[in-house]
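Hi team,

As requested, here is the filled-out complex form for the zinc ion run. I kept the field names the same as last time so the parser does not choke. Let me know if anything looks off before we queue the next batch.

— J.
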Amino acid sequence: MDLNTLRINGQRLQETIEQSAQIGATAGGGLIRCAATPEDKMGRDLLKKWYQECGCEVTIDEMGNMFAVRPGKRRSLGAVLTGSHFDTQKPGGRFDGILGVLGALEVMRVINENNIKLERDLIIANWTNEEGGWFIPACMGSGVWAGNHTKEWAYAIKDRDGITVFGEELEKIGYKGSFPASHREWNIDAAYELHIEQGPLLEQAGIQIGAPKGIVCLHWYDIYLTGTANQVGPTPMVGRNDALLAFSEMNIACNNIAHQLGNMVSTVGEIQNYPNSRNIISDRVHFTVDIRSWDDQHALKAWDLMKRECEVIAARRGCGIEFKETWKVAHAPFDPQLYQRVIDVSNQLGYSSMSMVSGAGHDMSEINQVTRGAMIFVPSIGGRSHVECEETPYEDCVRGTNVLLHCILQTANEFK
Ligand SMILES: [Zn+2]
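And here is what came back:
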């Protein structure tokens, strides 16, 4: 048959996504299906059944990562890996991660029912705890698989309330497998992840498919201010060392610097104020700054300016200030060839597409470190994600999955 005419079954994709959305459904139309919880187990059981109906052997590794393998003709060649995550934020939406898993399943179903024999193995992965919704941090399963953490480190992590332990909960739901959680156990040639954009750019531009060049850099800073606590009534306005007031100026200043420099996003997302009383002038504030850009040097330059400005404000307000660099991840370009394939396939299928960058981290951030990878984005209505009202029109899900299908067909039949 002419593979170029092959398309996925949009109706079946929609029904599958709707069925998935019943597990962990919230009253607000979203999902709560955090990793290593009973809802996660129900989701995984369903997924496993679907994988097996495709005739796939399902491998569960020590981190609970699930792999459905469809053998190709030349098994010694590296496989094509796809998939995403089935867990959600608390609460999250019905598409984040889930589209990548169920889109991959639909691709497998279409390939099967057309009796297409691929040259390479096709593997669908469901990565454990991408969201970090209940057990923090995010990308736990793919992170261990890529060799960036040990499984022991992950097993010991406690939930957000500090009560249960990840390793025990994973075992309790029956998904602590015995297969080693390592990319070294697999022979992978290329990886694709279909995902919702989680931002407004595709919708605003009226474009159907996004091809991210990679993932932006991420710089995290913690800032600690000290002032002088005092009773608010008798202490005159002049001469106070008000740490909260100093913070307020710093928050605005950091935002202004990011605006002025452009080509980045910067967010103050967390603040602790002590003693946090209406009766006492604040003497201690801790806050965080998160800077993301495609240009690592540009992000560093922004932080330099922010730091200097914060020092000036602290001096003027008579407050002490300390800075800590908490986390730094360089920008991560995807494989240029696979990225180009996403654009070329979109053109072949008659879909509009645009080049962009991913502002969020994904399992692909980890996978791309150990094999070549690329992502396919589809629009998010209103750019909203990690919320119950997260929505992507089904026509866009279908288009994204068709792009995934043809990227996989081309890559899985390619060999030298
Ligand atoms: Zn996701």
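Two things worth flagging: The pocket of zinc ion is lined by residues 85, 96-97, 130, 195, 362 (CB under 6 Å). The longest helix spans residues 296-316.

Thanks,
J.
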